[in-house]
Structure formats: structure tokens, C-alpha cells
Amino acid sequence: MMSPDSSQSSSDSQAAWAKLNSGGKKYTPLLICRGANGFGFSLTDDSPVGVCQVEAGSSAEKAGLQENDRIVEVEKEDVINTSTQQLAAIIRHQQKTMEVVVWREVSTQRVQRTGSQQTDRQTPCKTPVKRSGSKLSGLGSARKKYKQQCKERKAKGRRDGVADGATVSEKKALKMVAYLHEIEGEFCDTVERSRCYYVSQLQQSGQLDEDSMATLFQNIDMLISMSRYFASKLEIVVRQADKKMIATAPEIYLPRIEVLKQNYLKYVEGVEKAEGVRLLLAEGLSVPSPEQDDILLLDELIYSPLHHIQKVAAAFSLFLQSVGDKDPSLPHVQRISSELRECCELIESYSQVSQPQFHSPAKSKSGPLDPEVAEIEERLEFPPHVKEFTLCEPNRHKIYWSEVKVIGVKHKLVAYLFSDIILVARQRGWRDSKLSVAMDPVNLCDIIDVDYGAEGSDGVFEIKLHYMSMPDQELCTLTMVCLDLETKLVWKGLLRDRLVRHTPPTEHSLSDQV
Fold it and tell me: Which ranges are annotated Basic residues under compositional bias (predicted)?
């Protein structure tokens, strides 16, 4: 693991340098590099930019290493004599993050070139190596030259995407936007494939069986949940931009902020429309013969939020490029980058939309076993007060999970929402993956009322499930306290839709406190 103390790393580097040079040969450091599951090297002639990433299992030649190079792991001060075969094995089996220095033997044979330049005959590292005492300074002149080149390029006005001469914070922000575009594209492609499955099935057979309907609603719920989260983050970013940047340079930032605001409002409108269409789908697509309007609503549901994600991402791209024109080191740039990173992570987690499995109505309703449910079942442990049961059954799928608190239990629990039941369990620490079942599962068909609590109050994220326990038919209450409002809203939407589908409306009196 990397040492958190930079001074300790410097001391270790000097110790490793002394060990290397004790044998009579002289070595020069090429670059201190950090990497997980592989090394990153920079063997360019005059600057430490353009790092070549070497993935696990790659060859040493791809890293640009030579037969007599040495690798020093700074923390252990270990010197690795790198034949290319040895280094390939090291890279292939590297599973932790480490800090290393690449050393190359300095040739004592030099030739005089034009002017006063001197270069090595054998080593490709053309930067003259300066050493004062035991301090390492082989990259000092390279950094100065690189900074000078950045200033010259900036003076010429050469700015593209990740701009020449851009600051570190600006580069990170722009790269985050590019990553957002990439993840968004993958997400759109996946949703498009699912949409084609749904529409083709509806047009051919005029109905979706129960399994396909469950998958359809699962995907739509994930899309809407992601949209709500993305909209909340956009609101934060717009608010930050409005306050921080208009006063700084209104002639530059004001047009960008207006574009950002307009697209944000359109995006929120699309999310609200998607939620309305979702309710119509619950009522319309479950009937045997859906009309063409239902298919159009499905298209609108999928494309309305994603269309505005594209617009917002484009507005972000223009907005962040303009940030660097005046003061690219302002703290809000880092905050915007952080907000985008969270959005990207969430979109990435939702991008793996499960593909629906269509079945002919004439076939058996017994569907395949879900491997994800089977994996959860392997982790279950049943205490004496809980009767053992089989979790992995045909047509049962995991819909959602989150950490919750339960009234009367001091430990933090995990609540799983499956297609037909709710399971509450305790995870015994992060290292132990076992799940201790806290209570008998709650069947969705046994729930007779849900109280979502009053929203808007500080710290009130309760969801009370009133259900008839089996087999004694006693009226029981499960009170889950979500850790944040966003989690509560997701649970609220998922429970409301599934309870409507599992039991006729006459048997439900769902509390609708907003």
C-alpha cells in the first residue's frame, strides 16, 4: 500500500537509491508512478506527461522498459531485477496499490553534439541528470520545460476539449463531462435494446406475461429513480453556479448559466412526465390487449429523461470550458466535478438494465431461477427465532435494497425488496458477507396498509408496513427508517406500484401522505 506520508516516501526513495548505487553502477529515476492492478510508466524524452498505462497481464516491452531496468517498491525498498519475463509476472499478479520508482542505468559514454548539448548514447532519457547530495532531481528541468510549453500554447490560444495549458482542476472537470457522455451513451444503448424487446413483443403477441411485466416495471423504476437523483444534483449545481459565478464574470458566465437553467427545467419536466406515464403504464399495459397509445407512452417515458440528459451534459461541457477563462482554480469547479462524479457513478450502476425474458402464454409459468437471488440465499443465516425458508424460487427477482433502521433494533439492517416479498437481515460487518435474517419475510400480498409518514419534517423518513403475518394471521407492523429522503422516495414509489399489482384495490387502503 502507498505510504500516506510523502516525507516517508521521499526518505524511502533515497534509501533505495543508495542501495542501487552501492554496487558501483549509477542509476537515474524516470518517474514515481502509482497504479492499481498494473503499473503506469512515463518514458517520454522531456516531460512527465502522456503516461502509458500498462494493464495487468501486459508485457514489459509495452511499458517501454529495458532489460537492465530496476523497479523499486518504495515502501519495502525492494529492488526488482527486471528481465522482461519477471516484470510481466509481477504486473500480472499485482493486486494492490503500490508506489514504485523506475530506475535506468546511466551510461558513462557520451558524445558531443552540435552546440553544447550532451546526450546519452544508450539511454533514451535525454534530460541531463542533476544530483545534489542524496536528493533526487532528475525531472526538474523536464517540468520547467513542460510549463514553458504550456504557457506558449496558451498564449497562442490553442484550446481544445481538454485544453492545452489547462489547470488540473479544469482538466478533471472536462474529463468528468467526457465520462458522463460515455456512460450516458452506454445507458441509452441499453435502454434502447430493452425498448425494442418490449415493443416487438407487444406488437407480436399483444401481451406481456407476468415475468416480462415485472422486468419492464423494474427497468422503468430504475430509470425514474436515476432521473430523480440526477435532477436533485443538477439543482445543486445550478444553485452553486448562480451564486458563485455571476458576480465573478457575468459577461461570460451568465449566458452559460441561462442555458444550464433552461435545460434543467426541461429535464425536471421530463421526469415529472415520466412519473405520470409510469402510473398509466401500471394501469394500461397490464391488460391483455394494450393499445398503440400505450406503446407511444412507453417510448416517451424512456426517451424524455434521457433526451434532456444529453442536453444538460452538453450545457455542462460549454459551461465548464468557460470556467477556465477567468479563474479556473475557484473551489466551485471542484464541487461541480464532484457532483458530476456522483451522477456518473449512479448512471453507471443503473446502466446494466436487465433484459426481459418473454414466454409464450401456452408455456409453463415456472420461470428460471435468478442467480442474483441464489447468491443472496447462500449468504443467509437463520437464528433460532426465524424459521428457515427457501429464498431462491422461480420468478423471484431482486428489485431494490438499502440500509435501514428498524424500531427496536439498535443494529443497522439491510432491507431487500424482491418481486413478491420483503426481506430484512443484518450484515455482520463489512468483512463478513453473511446475512443474519432478522424476521420472517413479509409477503407483499399480505400487506393491508402502508403509512409513509409526513414528509418535510426533519429526520422523518419512516415507512410503516401493516401486514398479516403467516400462518397465524396476526396483524403486525414493520417500521423501516430510511437513512435519507431519497431512499425513502425510492421505497415509496416501488412499494406503491407493487402493492397495486399484487392485490385488488379494494383490499388496500394505501396512505398517501405527501
Answer: 142-157
Q: How confident is the model at residue 38 (pLDDT cuts 50, 70, 90)?
A: very low
Q: In this predicted model, which residue has the larger pLDDT, 129 or 421?
A: 421
Nearest to 312 by CA among 273, 339, 334: 339
Cα separation, 403 vs 401, whole angstroms: 7
What are the phi and psi torsion angles at 18 (to 5°)? -65, -40
Domain-located, residue 160: no
3-state secondary structure of 124: coil
What nine digits make up the cell of 340? 458530476
pLDDT of residue 427: 80
Give the containing element (helix H, strand E) for 477.
strand 474-482
Q: What is the mean pLDDT of residues 271-297?
A: 50
Q: How far apart are CA 32 and CA 123, in angstroms?
A: 18
More confidently predicted of 309 and 498: 498
Closest CA to 54 of 84, 81, 80: 84
Rg (CA), the chain: 30
Domain range enclosing 404: 371-507
Query: Can you tell me the distance from the alpha carbon of 442 to that of 422, in angstroms, rounded to the nearest whole number?
Result: 5
The H or E element spanning position 111 is strand 110-112
CA–CA separation, 424 vs 436, rounded Å?
9
Residue 513 C-alpha from the chain's centroid: 33
Q: What are phi and psi of 424, to 5 degrees?
A: -115, 130
Domain CATH code at residue 455:
2.30.29.30
Contact partners, residue 120, CB within 8 Å, separation at least 6: 106, 107, 110, 126
Cell for 28?
537515474
Read off the pLDDT of residues 430-469 as tens digits, 9 standing for 90 and up. Answer: 555 788 898 889 988 888 888 887 654 556 688 888 888 7
- Assigned domain for 132 exists: no
**152-204 confidence digits (pLDDT tens):** 655 554 343 344 444 444 454 445 445 444 544 544 554 455 555 555 555 55
